[in-house]
Amino acid sequence: MSLLATLFRSSIGRKFLMAITGVILIGFIVGHLAGNLQIFEHPDKINGYAQFLHQTGPLLWVARIGLLLAVGLHIWAATVLTLENRRARGVGYGAGKTWIRASLSSRYIRWTGYVVLAFILYHLAHFTLGITDPADFKTQHAYVMQHDYAVAGFPVVAAGTEVHNVYLMVYRGFQSAPVAIFYMIAVGLLSFHLLHGMESLFQTIGWRSQTWANVLRKLVALFCLLYFLGNLAIPGAILTGALAPHPAAMADAPMPDNN
Ligand code: HEM
Fold first, then answer.
1. Reported pTM
2. Residue 255 located in a structural domain
3. Is residue 259 part of a domain?
4. Ligand 1: centre distance to CA 2 (Å)
5. Is residue 76 domain-resident?
6. What is the pLDDT of residues 107-159, one digit of tens each?
7. Nearest to 112 by CA among 136, 144, 78, 70
8. What are phi and psi of 217, to 5 degrees?
9. Calpha distance 49→43 (Å, rounded)
10. Does residue 191 have its Cβ closer than 6 Å to ligand 1?
């Protein structure tokens, strides 16, 4: 069997597929969080960053398609493995590995996965497509860059360029309590999903020996906690007013009533 066929046709191959796609998705969410945390700086940062990503054109589409493929394969492999395990033992994925304690996060991995998927669909409608707030998406949210935006020292978006005001879009989005609370719950469940997902990943690639299991569990838990807090900070700070709206981002689009 070729390597590709092994990946898709054998049970261990599908576990590797879950691990590989898991690593890709973790890479994305960590990078995405780092980009989003720029909201705590001058609006030039997050707006310049979003403009830079959009400027990459075909590269952005390659990344988007890669991400979509990773999500699709991750779900497919998880579904097939669950069905196989059910057929073989009458129990869910992961239950056969007796030396992994059946933690809460492992028992609910499928359900947290469903919520994360639902969150991603809502999130795309919210911030990428602007379907949930269509009235002024992109047009009213215009922003003129005050400084150059640089990546690795190279200016990639020049001062004076009119860009999408991502800062304002996110700020206004999270002034709505139901939206902000939904995001906070969703990132909580995503972090919970990662808790078991990452331990399984390390087991699949053979890094989770009996000796290291406890240390690894603590490192994974620390990573998930930091990831959760980083994500929580954005809607949390906006909803509570801890992050005051930056005047530069509000200038060309007056804030509507907070309702
Ligand atoms: C507080 C948390 C988050 C904030 C503030 C946030 C913000 C954003 C924004 C502003 C965009 C649109 C960027 C643009 O088109 O210019 C976006 C896109 C996206 N976000 Fe998030 N995000 C958050 C959490 C997440 C999480 C947890 C995930 C994944 C589980 C995620 C997945 C995505 C994806 C897949 C896109 C589409 C990227 C693209 O269009 O190429 N986001 N996010």
1. 0.89
2. no
3. no
4. 36
5. yes
6. 788 888 999 999 999 999 988 888 877 655 555 678 999 999 999 999 999 99
7. 78
8. -60, -40
9. 10
10. no
The number of C-alpha atoms within 13 Å of 165 and in the hemisphere containing its C-beta is 26
Q: Is 36 in the pocket of ligand 1 (CB under 6 A)?
A: yes
Q: What does the pLDDT look like over 192-244, one tens digit per residue? A: 999 989 988 988 888 777 788 888 999 999 999 999 999 999 999 999 999 99
Angle at which helix 166-173 crosses helix 213-240, to 10 degrees, equals 90
Tell which one of 28, 30, 32 to mutate to probe ligand 1, the residue whose CB is within 8 A of the most ligand atoms: 32
Question: Would 257 be classed as within a structural domain?
Answer: no
For residue 231, what are its two tokens? 């994500």
Token reading at 208: 């989770």
Distance (Å, whole) CA 223 – CA 79? 26
- Residue that has been written with the tokens 């689009």 in this structure: 253
- Per the structure, the complete domain to which residue 217 belongs is given by 16-250
Number of domains in the chain: 1
Q: Could you tell me if the CB of 51 is within 6 A of ligand 1?
A: no
Classify residue 131 by burial, with Cβ atoms within 10 Å: 0-12, 13-18, 19+.
Answer: exposed
